[in-house]
């Protein structure tokens, strides 16, 4: 060891340095293998690498306009302009954060909700929806270390990673029925009943990702009732408020049913999609409490957790959202723009379904218009998904989730034809769909 | 009467049902408030104080001669340039490639061979805290039985970060209260006594909270000893530019370790030196043996980041890459960092002078010996 030190000092060359570093004891990261690529990232990269001029990206769930371009709502542009004139140096970030949380909570629970009126919630800004879920998972682990999380099958894949990383075992409950391409309601209720009392459940209040299938109001009431009987904890991940129906209040109906029924819910909100603020990472985590003392205690615990993760959330997106939500004109503008986005997606669903039916496809495509929100769970097989990619340069998630935001008037015919081709071939070779 | 009774009976039933429903479960009944962060607690107390003469020397955020927060001119210009960009899409999981490139140049050197050889696995992180936490999680995953040695004292949040990542902590001597300087022999002894191959957290410059940095000669000795012991050096560099006013000079300790062949880890923050506190911009880098390993390490860091926040925030990264990527703006930044550092150095001198003029019997040279905020 000493000999090597002397050698390295007197032969101060690159070779010597490399020699020393290799021999300095440890191959620190020898065991580190290349991690599997995130499936959405993989799809995106394949799409970007494809030189085919008519390729279509139906992978990632970011909104696109009729020309397939990213869309920044006007209200966001206006808010950005206002921020540039804002005296940044006088921004009191904790005041802004408090205002942000209050506006977010009003949006979710309703302006006149008793939760908001009486302050019966602990709320903090988070790193978008992912950050809100992770923060809750860590909080759940801290106070219910032996608990598990029940996730719908299927769900956004990152839910599995989030709770696993927080060291909470994951269970699943029935959700999607591949035969009807709809909700497997009976099995869902059965799983709710069979879970141990006081289990933690994750629910998508609207525009379920990836299936686009939401329970009806009647079904939500039944689920809420069964949750009460079993004393389960309902955690809602609301990433698409506004995208289901175009109406923010309607899309929060499930959440509000549970709150009316007396559940003390947890809620992750994201402004990534409905305000087009993807890169700004703006979200909110709220946990309802019995009283304001408990709310303060829970809030302090949540802050304690994220303090060691990132100290405080990024301010820019918080400023934008706060401005938009607290200015009545901007808020109205935003509501109109959400409606436009939701309507465009609904129109594309209708067109895609109609095109497929016009092609005399022998399959049923009504699930395309039955499902809501950003995604269509097409029901295509993995082989068909691969075929679409290789032969038609159409890219979607491996689970055949189609991001309807990627469908435009100029590519919907091509898409319909491609799907028709691939399902016809499968029919002819008797591959089940 | 019957109708009224029936209606009021219904109302009563519904009210009590609601009241009962509201309190039917109390998941978090027994939760106590978390302990307050000591530094943030100071700021809260300051804000609540009514005295016109109050002074806040608690939180480590730069203030100008009027006690006001400062937005750097280079940052304002960068904001103006990116204002119309409308780019709000998700960044890749690893963050802004441009920002990471510029950050590596700043820390490792413009012409660093490690950058040329692509030996650094690096990702954008949520400021210094995020970079440390991501590294702690990475350390825990690939060296699950390891511990982290942190200096006494250190930034309080270091304890929380490694603890919450599940990595046990040990400490090593650093501050010498009697001399108000570095306990160099204590430090070296602790490095020597730690089991071979331990992880050490070092402040690259402007140690927080002491302001006491090893001299260049001392850094060289620390580097040698760490090499002998095969320890892993992890640098937290939150104040590059603030110690001396010269970012290259402030990275000297890191450059010494690199010359000596260590495979370091490094957390960088732009909170203070670019005044981007609220934007949460930073960079985590891990120097690897070769490009292949760097690719693997980066992919694993991304795998850890995805279930934390999916991808990092875009705005601050755009500002940093705009400033550092434009020679004119970068020069402006270097001037402004020097102004901030000089103001602080000036205040140190004045404070010490005033105390000595007041005939204080206590020694105050540590005020000017110590560096940065």
UniProtKB/TrEMBL annotation, chain A:
* Stretches assigned to the Aminotransferase class I/classII large domain: 54-419
What catalytic activity is recorded? L-aspartate + 2-oxoglutarate = oxaloacetate + L-glutamate
Please give the Pfam families that the UniProt record associates with this protein: Aminotran_1_2
Q: Which cofactor names does the annotation list?
A: pyridoxal 5'-phosphate
| Keyword Calcium attributed | no
**Swiss-Prot/TrEMBL keywords:** Aminotransferase, Pyridoxal phosphate, Transferase
Q: Which Gene3D superfamilies match?
A: Aspartate Aminotransferase, domain 1, Type I PLP-dependent aspartate aminotransferase-like (Major domain)
Is the keyword Transferase assigned to this protein? Answer: yes
Q: Which family does it belong to?
A: Belongs to the class-I pyridoxal-phosphate-dependent aminotransferase family.
PANTHER family, A to Z: ASPARTATE AMINOTRANSFERASE
Describe its assembly: Homodimer.
* Protein name, as recorded: Aminotransferase class I/classII large domain-containing protein
Native source species: Stylosanthes scabra
Automatic annotation (TrEMBL), chain B:
Alphabetic keyword roster = Aminotransferase, Pyridoxal phosphate, Transferase
Q: Could you name the domain of life of the organism this protein comes from?
A: Eukaryota
All residue ranges annotated as the Aminotransferase class I/classII large domain in the record: 53-370
Q: Does the keyword Oxidoreductase apply?
A: no
Q: Name one Pfam family in it.
A: Aminotran_1_2
As cofactor, the record names:
pyridoxal 5'-phosphate
Further comment = In eukaryotes there are cytoplasmic, mitochondrial and chloroplastic isozymes.
Subunit annotation: Homodimer.
Q: Which family does it belong to?
A: Belongs to the class-I pyridoxal-phosphate-dependent aminotransferase family.
Protein name listed in UniProt: Aspartate aminotransferase
Task: Record the organism.
Answer: Stylosanthes scabra
- Write the gene name: ASP1_3
């Amino acid at each position: 060891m000493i000999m090597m030190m002397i050698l390295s000092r007197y032969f101060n060359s690159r070779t010597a340095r490399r020699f020393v570093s290799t021999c300095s004891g440890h191959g620190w990261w020898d065991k580190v293998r290349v991690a599997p690529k995130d499936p959405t990232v993989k799809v995106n990269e394949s799409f970007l690498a494809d030189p085919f001029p008519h390729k279509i990206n139906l992978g990632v769930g970011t909104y696109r306009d009729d020309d397939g371009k990213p869309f920044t709502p006007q209200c966001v542009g206006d808010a950005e302009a206002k921020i540039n004139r804002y005296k940044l140096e006088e921004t009191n970030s904790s005041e802004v954060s408090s205002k942000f949380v209050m506006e977010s909570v009003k949006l979710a629970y309703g302006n006149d909700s008793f939760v908001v009126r009486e302050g019966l919630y602990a709320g903090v800004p988070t790193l978008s929806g992912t950050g809100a879920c992770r923060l809750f998972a860590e909080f759940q682990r801290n106070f219910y270390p032996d608990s598990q999380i029940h996730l719908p099958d299927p769900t956004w894949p990152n839910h599995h990673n989030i709770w696993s990383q927080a060291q909470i075992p994951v269970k699943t409950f029935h959700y999607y029925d591949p035969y009807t391409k709809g909700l497997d309601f009976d099995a869902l209720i059965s799983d709710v009943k069979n879970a141990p009392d006081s289990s933690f459940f994750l629910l998508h209040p609207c525009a379920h990702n990836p299936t686009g299938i939401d329970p009806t109001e009647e079904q939500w009431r039944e689920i809420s009732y069964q949750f009460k009987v079993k004393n389960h904890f309902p955690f809602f991940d609301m990433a698409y408020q506004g995208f289901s129906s175009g109406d923010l209040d309607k899309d929060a109906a499930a959440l509000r049913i549970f709150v009316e029924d007396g559940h003390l819910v947890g809620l992750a909100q994201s402004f990534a999609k409905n305000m087009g603020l993807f890169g700004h990472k703006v979200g909110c985590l709220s946990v309802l409490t019995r009283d304001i003392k408990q709310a303060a205690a829970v809030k302090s615990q949540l802050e304690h957790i994220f303090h060691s993760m990132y100290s405080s959330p990024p301010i820019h997106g918080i400023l934008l959202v706060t401005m938009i939500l607290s200015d009545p004109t901007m808020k109205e503008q935003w509501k109109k723009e959400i409606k436009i986005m939701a309507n465009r997606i609904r129109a594309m669903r209708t067109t895609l379904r109609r095109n497929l039916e016009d092609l005399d496809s022998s399959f049923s495509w009504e699930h395309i218009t039955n499902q809501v929100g950003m995604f269509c769970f097409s029901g295509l097989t993995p082989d068909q998904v691969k075929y679409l990619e290789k032969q038609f340069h159409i890219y979607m998630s491996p689970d055949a989730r189609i991001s309807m935001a990627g469908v435009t008037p100029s590519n919907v015919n091509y898409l319909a034809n491609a799907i028709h081709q691939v399902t016809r071939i499968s029919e002819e070779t008797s591959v089940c769909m | 009467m019957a109708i009224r009774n029936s209606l009021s009976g219904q109302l009563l039933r519904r009210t009590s049902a609601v009241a009962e429903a509201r309190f039917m479960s109390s998941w978090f009944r027994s939760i106590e408030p978390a302990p307050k962060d000591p530094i943030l607690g100071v700021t809260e107390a300051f804000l609540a104080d009514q005295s016109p003469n109050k002074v806040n020397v608690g939180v480590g955020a730069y203030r100008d001669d009027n006690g006001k927060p400062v937005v750097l001119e280079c940052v304002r210009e960068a904001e103006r340039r990116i204002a119309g960009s409308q780019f709000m899409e998700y960044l890749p999981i690893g963050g802004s490639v441009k920002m990471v490139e510029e950050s590596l140049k700043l820390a490792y050197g413009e012409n660093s061979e490690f950058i040329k050889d692509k030996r650094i696995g690096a990702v954008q992180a949520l400021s210094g805290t995020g970079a440390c936490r991501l590294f702690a999680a990475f350390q825990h995953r690939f060296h699950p039985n390891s511990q982290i040695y942190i200096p006494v004292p250190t930034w309080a949040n270091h304890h929380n970060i490694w603890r919450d990542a599940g990595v046990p902590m040990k400490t090593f001597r650093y501050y010498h209260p009697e001399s108000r300087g570095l306990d160099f022999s204590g430090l070296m002894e602790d490095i020597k006594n730690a089991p071979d191959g331990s992880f050490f957290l070092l402040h690259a410059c402007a140690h927080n909270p002491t302001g006491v940095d090893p001299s260049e000669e001392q850094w060289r000795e620390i580097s040698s000893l760490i090499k002998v012991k095969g320890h892993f050096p992890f640098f937290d560099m939150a104040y590059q530019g603030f110690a001396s006013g010269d970012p290259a000079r402030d990275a000297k300790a890191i450059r010494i370790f690199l010359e000596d062949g260590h495979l370091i880890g490094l957390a960088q923050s732009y909170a203070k030196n670019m005044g981007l506190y609220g934007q949460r911009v930073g960079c985590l880098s891990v120097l690897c043996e070769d490009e292949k390993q760097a690719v693997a390490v980066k992919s694993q860091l991304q795998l850890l980041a995805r279930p934390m926040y999916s991808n990092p925030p875009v705005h601050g990264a755009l500002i940093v890459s705009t400033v550092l990527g434009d020679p004119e703006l970068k020069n402006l930044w270097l001037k402004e960092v020097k102004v901030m550092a000089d103001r602080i150095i000036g205040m140190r001198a004045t404070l010490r002078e005033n105390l000595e003029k007041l005939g204080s019997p206590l020694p105050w040279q540590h005020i000017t010996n110590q560096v940065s905020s």
